[in-house]
Give the backbone structure.
Amino acid sequence: MNEPKANGPSADDDPTAGVVAPGDEAETPDELLALWEDEGPPPAGGISNLVACGVTCLFGIVGMILSWNLSLGTLTDPAPGFFPFVVALIATVLSAAQIVLGRRGGDGEKFISHSVTVVWGVLSLVIFVAVLPLVGFEIPSLLLSFVWMKLLGGESWRSAILYSVLTVVAFYLIFVVALRTQLPHLF
């Protein structure tokens, strides 16, 4: 038996079926990916990626030199510069690999007005490092966590306050109480 068709086009006839408009909710991972691509900034291009990799590589080299000056020690008895040296080495190697292999432009994004949040994040981290020895671990960590969650991350007041307190308490319990590290702290 043939059933009569309802008036109007069916979902099978709609060429925009499965396309998510900005502001709509995605139902599948493919729709979510398409939505992110539509909302994201345009690609930066090869020259921008090369410059970013060059700057990162330079930071890695400077980090290795500064770490070397702190003394590296050995694998069984690492000195203060050992782990910073390893991190700087990894950053340098990955940057050099990206310079050689990833110059085609790929997924890098152009700087847009929202990109300035990275600058605020780095600036707040520099202030945190400068204030930590003077005030202790707890207050600067609480303020840094709150700034990152509320101002940079856009969390609600309640979430930012709650998660900041929980984060600092967790770090305090792990690093000060359990591991007995030599962090400057008030309590």
About this structure: The chain has two domains: 26-111, 114-187. Residues 26-111 form one domain. The chain has a mean pLDDT of 80.
